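help with these tokens:
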Amino acid sequence: MWSYFKIGLFGFGGGYAMLSLIESEIVGNGWITRQEFTDIVAISQMTPGAIGINSATYIGYVAPSSVSPEFAAPIWGILGSLLCTFVVVLPPALMVMYTSHFIARHKDSIAIKGIFAGLRIVIVGLIASAAMLLMNAQNFGTEQSEIINSIIICISAFCLVYFAKLHPILVIILAGIAGYLIY
């Protein structure tokens, strides 16, 4: 719960921006492997909801049994899921409720504009960090042919969404088919 409270409190800029913090907290604590983390990110992108909430729900379910065998019963996983999901949502919800009236009242202030300009730069850096975090052996493979194929699929997916304006769901399906045929 403490890990997801910190993620909720310091996870500015959405799912990709908080990805490094999530990885540090859940893989660093040994609750899941780096491969499982990569799988969570992939599944979170295909399911409704934010990465932080989806990972909190999943980790809340699996963490109790990874801590101790006596917590392996499904009831502990369900309780963990509910609690982790709640604590990851709580800090941002409280911050929005507390600051929204202040920001609305002072939206033309030079200080508020400066704060948001600085936050935008930090968020871009956090998202770039998440991109680098996901460029790992679990996503791209370890052999040269796997790496080349993965890069081709990655670049093709980007081009199909960005230039050809294909719907992302269609691109996910096509990438899955390509991965199945190649691997």
